[in-house]
Design goal:
two-stranded antiparallel ribbon; single chain; Arc Repressor Mutant, subunit A; 74 residues; globular
Length: 74
Amino acid sequence: SGEVYERYKAVAKKLGKEPRTARWYREYLGGLESAGLVTTVLSGKGVRGHTTLIKLAYEPDKVKRVIEKTLLAE
């Protein structure tokens, strides 16, 4: 999950936004898991500690369509 957070920070900075904290990210990820949108699995020990693997609960194309539909509705 650390790689995903690093990518998020890079995209936020590219968009001129201040990235949220790692704690916020972990809480948000937990919310996505509680909602059944992603699953997380604690993997073995990585370079800087345990690695959390994140997997979409649905097909990526379906998730993309729902996100686009939601964003366009706003």
